[in-house]
């Protein structure tokens, strides 16, 4: 600290920020005491896994966005006994006119498992901001459900997303989903950051666990779209079982609109939804220079119109910044490849999973490091995204409780608990993120932060600077 005598007899205290920064610890680590145990699987006869009554009744119904803009929905379901019909009947809430959309079905084999009939049907040309009812199945086993389309894209369109990752199908998984369902701030869509059923954690990658998981999430996924990200537990690469095609169960069961954004793979794609532009990336596909994913992201980021969709959100499974010992530094290669673009295009927030805990970062970047300059620590960077790890859905592998010490400066808050997040976009400049731990009541926020959109903040600062400059010029000429 340096003390200086200022103008008009005022003492000025000048803090040498760099010095204080060098001796500061990181943010806060929660002191919340939780049970440290592996999560327990729910029994297969639990009511959350129940099969709908009736012969060949549709089950595992789930929806996702079906196009790039938000006027289309992909509806997926399974019939267990025979193909039945792949047609969806649907109608808007304010009309009796019923329409039909026709889909298709697929099946697959994995080791000693043969899937039932997996139906996918895309409903197109829907109205924005409208509630629709839909029916799947035929005869006495028809099931009626509903969804709501988003409002049209626009800079000040409010919209709320839920955030869930690494869910699994344990008692803790059920608590996470129940808390989300019962929350008064429940989202209108879920951004899911990977690791779905954890079927590969069972002997022979037991694909029956894909079926139980599909029935488990139906109570939410049939009514609001889940935006899917593939994690490491979706790879299902098992050459010892004769299964050498990665992502086979996942890509057969969970379709996404990847072609609408010019992607060549369902593992990376983008969508618009209200005031958000969401880019989904694959941590477990080739991502180096000149790979298909790299070339797609390189073209995708410049296409984002921040005047239409100001909030730029990236989803991936492996975190680029994490201070937990589990999976420590696994995302470093990914960070080296893509962080410079995230800063250049002012990505607002990057959501990831993989680490079974919660962590929120400061806005930092490590793009200055060039291997010889020694600038190897992340520095505060207002153009950088905030990184949020939310791999705490509740899976059977349990919590990641071991943390690196001391807490890094880039880490704002961390806690090894299960839970879910809510991202509530208010307008083009402000969004509110909150995280709810499972051990609290349904609506208790254990951590929260206001996000200030850096693209629009930069524009406002530039506008103010231009205005001041013009005022000064006018004053000088008078």
Automatic annotation (TrEMBL):
SUPFAM superfamilies: Metallo-dependent phosphatases, Purple acid phosphatase, N-terminal domain. InterPro entries: Calcineurin-like_PHP, FN3_dom, Metallo-depent_PP-like, MPP_PAP, PAPs-like, PAPs_C, PAPs_N, Purple_acid_Pase-like_N. Its EC number is 3.1.3.2. It comes from the Eukaryota. CDD domains: MPP_PAPs. The keyword Amino-acid biosynthesis does not apply. Keywords: Glycoprotein, Hydrolase, Iron, Metal-binding, Signal, Zinc. The keyword Signal applies. One of its GO terms (molecular function) is acid phosphatase activity. It catalyses: a phosphate monoester + H2O = an alcohol + phosphate. Residues 57-152 form the Fibronectin type-III domain. Its cofactor is Fe cation; Zn(2+). Belongs to the metallophosphoesterase superfamily. Purple acid phosphatase family. This is Purple acid phosphatase.
């Amino acid at each position: 600290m340096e003390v200086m005598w200022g103008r008009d007899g005022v003492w000025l205290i000048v803090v040498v920020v760099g010095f204080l920064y060098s001796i500061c610890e990181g943010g806060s680590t929660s002191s919340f005491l939780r049970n440290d145990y592996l999560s327990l699987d729910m029994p297969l006869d639990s009511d959350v896994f129940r099969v709908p009554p009736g012969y060949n009744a549709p089950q595992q119904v789930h929806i996702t966005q079906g196009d790039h803009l938000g006027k289309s929905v992909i509806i997926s379901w399974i019939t267990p006994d025979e193909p039945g019909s792949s047609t969806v009947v649907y109608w808007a809430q304010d009309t009796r006119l019923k329409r039909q959309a026709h889909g298709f079905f697929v099946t697959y084999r994995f080791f000693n498992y043969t899937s039932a009939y997996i139906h996918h049907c895309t409903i197109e040309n829907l109205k924005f901001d409208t509630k629709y009812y839909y029916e799947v199945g035929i005869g006495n086993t028809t099931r009626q459900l509903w969804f709501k389309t988003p409002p049209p894209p626009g800079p000040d369109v409010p919209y709320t997303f839920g955030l869930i990752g690494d869910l699994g199908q344990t008692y803790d998984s059920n608590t996470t989903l129940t808390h989300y369902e019962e929350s008064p701030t429940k989202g209108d869509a879920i951004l899911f950051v990977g690791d779905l059923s954890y079927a590969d954690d069972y002997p022979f990658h037991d694909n029956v666990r894909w079926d139980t998981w599909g029935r488990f999430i139906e109570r939410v996924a049939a009514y609001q779209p889940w935006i899917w990200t593939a994690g490491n537990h979706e790879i299902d690469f098992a050459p010892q079982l004769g299964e050498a095609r990665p992502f086979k169960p996942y890509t057969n069961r969970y379709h996404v609109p990847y072609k609408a954004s010019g992607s060549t793979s369902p593992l990376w794609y983008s969508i618009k939804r209200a005031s958000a532009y969401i880019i989904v990336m694959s941590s477990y596909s080739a991502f180096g220079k000149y790979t298909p994913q790299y070339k797609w992201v390189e073209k995708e980021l410049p296409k984002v119109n921040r005047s239409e969709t100001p909030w730029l959100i990236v989803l991936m499974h492996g975190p680029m910044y994490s201070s937990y010992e589990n999976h420590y530094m696994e995302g470093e290669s990914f960070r080296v490849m893509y962080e410079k673009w995230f800063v250049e295009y002012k990505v607002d927030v990057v959501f990831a999973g993989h680490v079974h805990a919660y962590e929120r970062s400061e806005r930092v970047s490590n793009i200055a490091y060039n291997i010889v300059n020694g600038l190897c620590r992340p520095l505060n960077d207002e153009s950088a995204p905030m990184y949020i790890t939310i791999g705490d859905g509740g899976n059977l592998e349990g919590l990641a409780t071991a943390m690196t010490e001391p807490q890094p400066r880039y880490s704002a808050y961390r806690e090894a608990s299960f839970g879910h997040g809510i991202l509530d976009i208010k307008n083009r400049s402000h969004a509110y993120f909150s995280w709810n731990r499972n051990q609290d009541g349904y609506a208790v926020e254990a951590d929260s932060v206001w996000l200030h959109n850096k693209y629009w903040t930069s524009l406002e600062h530039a506008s103010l600077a231009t205005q001041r400059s013009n005022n000064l010029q006018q004053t000088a000429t008078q």
